[in-house]
Amino acid sequence: WEEERYPEGIKWKFLEHKGPVFAPPYEPLPENVKFYYDGKVMKLSTKAEEVATFFAKMLDHEYTTKEIFRKNFFKDWRKEMTSEEKSTITNLSKCDFTHMSQYFKAQTEARKQMSKEEKQKIKEENERLLKEYGYCVMDNHKERIANFKIEPPGLFRGRGNHPKMGMLKRRIMPEDIIINCSKDSKIPAPPPGHKWKEVRHDNKVTWLVSWTENIQGSIKYIMLNPSSRIKGEKDWQKYETARRLKKCVDKIRNQYREDWKSKEMKVRQRAVALYFIDKLALRAGNEKEEGETADTVGCCSLRVEHIKLHPELDGQEYVVEFDFLGKDSIRYYNKVPVEKRVFKNLQLFMENKQPEDDLFDRLNTSILNKHLQDLMEGLTAKVFRTYNASITLQQQLKELTNPDDNIPAKILSYNRANRAVAILCNHQRAPPKTFEKSMMNLQSKIDAKKEQLADARRELKSAKADAKVRRDEKSKKTVESKKKAVQRIEEQLMKLEVQATDREENKQIALGTSKLNYLDPRISVAWCKKWGIPIEKIYNKTQREKFAWAIDMAEEDYEF
DNA sequence: GGGTCCGACTCAGAAAATTCTAC
DNA sequence: GGTAGAATTTTCTGAGTCGGACC
C-alpha cells in the first residue's frame, strides 16, 4: 500500500460494502418456561419478557447483585412493561428468574452436545455470513471488516463502578443506521420494509456504518480489520512518530527538567505531568463528565487524594506513592522515588487543597498536547507510551537474550521483555479462574518429572558401577544410553520449570495489549530473524496478518 | 487564548469460541 | 481414537485519546 498517496484528509476514492448484519430478532420463550413474581407464575408480554431474559442470562454474574445495576435495570425494564405489568411488578427482589436462567443454561449445554453435523451446519452459515457481509472493497482492495455485526440488545455492562450499569441497551434498527460508501458504488439495501437513517459519501472518514448508542449517546462505528491497508498504514505511522520522538527525547527531557524551576505555575505543572507521562507511561487523562462514567483518572486529571508524598520510605528519598483507578478501572499502584525538585513541586501543588481537588489545577490535556506539538510535530501524550514501550522491549531483548539458549529459553526471554513493557503500561488482568488449579497441575507434573529424573540418575549410577566391574562394550553402551536419558529428562524438566516460571510471573499481567498496540512489530520481527526463531512462536495468525507490513519490511538489523 | 462539545479513531480486558493435549 | 478440560485465539464492546468546530 505504498502505491499512492492521497491529498490531506482523503481516506479513499472508492468504497463499496453490503451494510451491517442485524442482531437476530427476539424469540419468545417456550410456554413451559416460567417467570414468577412474588411466588406466583406470571406470563410476561413479549417486550417485557425479552428484557427479563437479558437479566436472567446474567443471573450468575456478580453484576446482578450490585445495587446500581439492579436499580438501573429495573427502571428500564419497567419502561418496557404493559401498564398492567407495571402495576404488578414493583419490586425486583420479588422477581424470580431462576427458571428462565436454568432454561438458558440447558440451551447452552444442548448446544455443546450437538452432533458434528449440526455444528458443521452452524459453522457453514457463519462462513456464508462472513463471506457476504464481512468484506468490502476499498479502492482496489478487498478488505476484511472488523465488526460487521450490529451489537445485539442487552444490559449495559460498564467497567468498574459505572453509574449506568444495568441500563437497557436498545435494539438497533435500520432506521438508526448511517451508511457511508462512495457514490459510484452499489449502495447496500436496507432489510425489506425498512429504510436507512441516512446514506452519505464522506471519504474523509474510514467508517462504513455508524449509529448512535443510547446509553452514553456516543457514536459507534463499523470499520475495517487491523490487517487492512488503512489501519496498517496508520499503525506504521504511529511507530514512525514514536521513532521521531526517540531522536529528540533527550532535548525534551532537559526542557521539562528546566521547566520544574519555572516561575509560572502552569509551566511547572506541565513539566511535572510530562515527567510522569514519560517516566511512568501514564495516560494523558482527559477530564470526564462527573456521574456519567466510572470515576477514573489519567495524568492530567490526577487528584490530590491519588498520591502520597514520603520524604523517606524504605531507605529511599522523595518517594511518591500513586494509588488511583485508570482506564477500565484498573488500579494503578506504584511507589516511585522521584527527583527532589519534582517532590518539592508536588508539595507546592498540594498546598491548601482538599483531597478531591485536581493535583494539576492549571493543566489539562489540551494545554499539554499543544505544548508537545510545539516541541515536535505530531507529538502528543500517548506517543510517550508508544515510545517507552517499544524502546523498553528493544533494550530488554538485548539484555535478556542469551545466544546460547535454546528456542524455548529464548522465547521465555522474549516473554519477559514483553512482560517488562506490560508492567510499565500497567496492563493487568483478573487472574484466570483456573489459575491455582492449572499451577498445581503443572507442579505435580514437575514433581513427577523430578522423580523420573531421580530414577534415571539411579539407573545411570548402577549402570556405571556395573560397567566398571564388567568392562565390556555392552555395559558401556548402557551407560551411554542412560546418560542420554538423564539428559533428556533434565531438559524436559527445565522446560516445565520455565513454563511454570513464565506462568507464575504472568498471573496478573496481560501481554496482549502491549504486543498489539504498543510494541513496534519490527523489533520483534528483527529479533526473530536474528535468533532464528520462527515468527509463529511470537505472533499467531491474526497477529501476523495485522503486522504483515512489518514482517515484510524489517530485517534482522532493524533498530527502533 | 481557552472552554465545551462532538466525532473519529485507538486501545482495553472479559467472555466466548476454537484448538490443543493428555489421558 | 475419542473426550474432557486446559490453553489459546477470536470476538465483543466499553473506555480512552485527540483534534476541530463553535463560542
Molecular shape:
globular
What percentage of amino acids are in beta strands?
5-15%
CATH class of the largest domain: Mainly Alpha
The helix-and-strand class reads: alpha+beta
Number of structural units classed as domains: 4
> What is the strand tally?
15
What is the CA-CA span between the terminal residues?
A: 21 Å
Residue ranges: pLDDT <50 for 5 or more in a row? none
Largest β sheet strand count, sense and barrel closure: 4 strands, mixed
- Give the helix level as a range of percent: 40-55%
Gyration radius, in Å: 30 Å
At the fold tier of CATH, the topology name of the largest domain is Topoisomerase I, Chain A, domain 4
Strand order of the largest sheet: 10-9-11-12
Going by CATH, the architecture of the largest domain would be Orthogonal Bundle
| Average pLDDT score | 91
Helix count, per DSSP? 17
Question: What does this protein look like?
Answer:
- It is a single chain.
- This protein is an alpha+beta fold.
- The chain folds into four domains: 15-22 and 119-225, DNA Topoisomerase I, domain 2; 35-113, Yeast DNA topoisomerase - domain 1 (Arc Repressor Mutant, subunit A); 231-378, Topoisomerase I, Chain A, domain 3; 389-553, Orthogonal Bundle (Topoisomerase I, Chain A, domain 4), CATH 1.10.132.10.
- It is 48% helix and 11% strand.
- The chain contains 17 helices and 15 strands.
- The protein has helices at 46-57, 67-80, 83-88, 98-112, 116-133, 229-259, 265-280, 340-350, 365-375, 381-400, 407-424, 435-470, 473-505, 512-517, 521-531, 541-546, 548-553; strands at residues 15-16, 35-37, 40-42, 95-96, 135-138, 141-144, 154-155, 168-169, 178-180, 198-200, 209-212, 219-222, 307-313, 316-325, 331-337.
- A four-stranded mixed sheet has the order 10-9-11-12, with no helix packed on it. A three-stranded antiparallel sheet has the order 1-5-6. Strands 3-2-4 form a three-stranded antiparallel sheet.
- Helix 6 crosses helix 7 (265-280), helix 7 (265-280) packs parallel to helix 10 (381-400) and helix 12 packs antiparallel against helix 13.
- The model has no long low-confidence stretch (mean pLDDT 91).
- It binds a DNA duplex (23 and 23 nucleotides) through residues 146-147, 149, 151, 156-159, 162, 205-207, 210, 213, 215-216, 218-221, 223, 231, 234-235, 238, 283-286, 288, 293-294, 296, 298, 326-330, 364-367, 369, 380-382, 427-430, 432, 434, 437-438, 441, 510, 512-513, 516-518, 540-542.
